[in-house]
Amino acid sequence: MARVVQRRPNPPYLLILFVFLFLVSTALAILFYTRQDDARKKITTKLTRERARALAYDQAEQVYDSSFEGDDLVRNAADRQMTVHETEFFTRSKGPVKGVTDPAKFAAAAFELNLMEISEIKEFGNSIYLLQVIEKMEPAIPEFKTVAAKVKADLIKEKQEEKAGQDAEKFLAALKEGQALAVVSERFGLKPESTGFFNRNAPIPNIGYNLELASAAFGLSGTDKLPEKPFQVNNSYYVIQFRAKKKPPDEDFEKEKDQIIERLLQQKRFKTIENWLAEKRKSSEITIEETFIE
């Protein structure tokens, strides 16, 4: 059972007062019974957990049915020896930092409530809640001094990424002019690395999985060694250059031959159906019946 307080600073923030009614998980955070240790020991079987959940839900219904607004939730929870918890302020996107099972779902439910409104019974993960919004903080622009450090750090990161992208473009342009990889690398203070051989659908050694980069790499050859552009993977930029290509061993191909053939056939079937549908759309008159949509 939860009492929710909503406030909204920058992005909207909520402050929530909430009461946990029940946690089924064996790693119990809070139990709203007077004998917490005994309760933990008893919840050891599925039957016991289900029974405990049913009892908690019944208690939540009793509190909900007798609570209307204001302090009713607090008073009715106290009458049943349940503890009401108050959250810190939180935003819709992040939810409470601690104390709830599923912060995202908790926040979504809380932001649907009006001030002092009590929610219906909510179940997130293995916990049961009643929420009440007790305060809202409207969005506001913070004073610069309170966010100056973060603004500075974000700006530095943005400029670093921008500079890295520009340097990657210059690096690639120098290679396309015919300059040697070792020479260009030294000029930029970099050390070239080799990936080793890798296949199209696997993570690229020293880089990671990136479909765009892998597709471009498999389009390169001994006569066309450089891609059209650098590639950004996570927070890094990469300029690649073709070194060598080798065919997979015959035994590897034999192992995967049937799967490869089937995959190619599926792709061909899909493409055929896609083209057929496109032609049908061009030569057909399409009408929308509003009654079916309703």
Give a short summary of the structure.
This protein has helices at 36-42, 46-66, 72-79, 103-110, 144-176, 181-187, 211-217, 250-283, 290-293, and strands at 13-23, 85-91, 122-124, 127-137, 231-233, 236-238. It is α+β, with helices and mostly antiparallel strands and 294 residues long. The protein folds into three domains: 13-137; 144-238, no CATH class; 250-293.
Task: Give a quick set of tags describing it.
294 residues, alpha+beta, 3 domains, four-stranded antiparallel beta sheet, two-stranded antiparallel sheet, 6 strands, 44% helix
Could you please describe the fold and organization of this structure?
- The relative contact order is 0.11.
- It is extended and about 80 Å long.
- It has three domains: 13-137; 144-238, no CATH class; 250-293.
- The chain is α+β, with helices and mostly antiparallel strands.
- The longest helix is centred in the C-terminal third of the chain and has 34 residues, at 250-283.
- Helices cover 44% and strands 13% of the residues.
Question: What is the strand and helix layout of this fold?
Answer:
Layout: E1 13-23, H1 36-42, H2 46-66, H3 72-79, E2 85-91, H4 103-110, E3 122-124, E4 127-137, H5 144-176, H6 181-187, H7 211-217, E5 231-233, E6 236-238, H8 250-283, H9 290-293
Antiparallel strand pairs: 1-2, 1-4, 3-4, 5-6
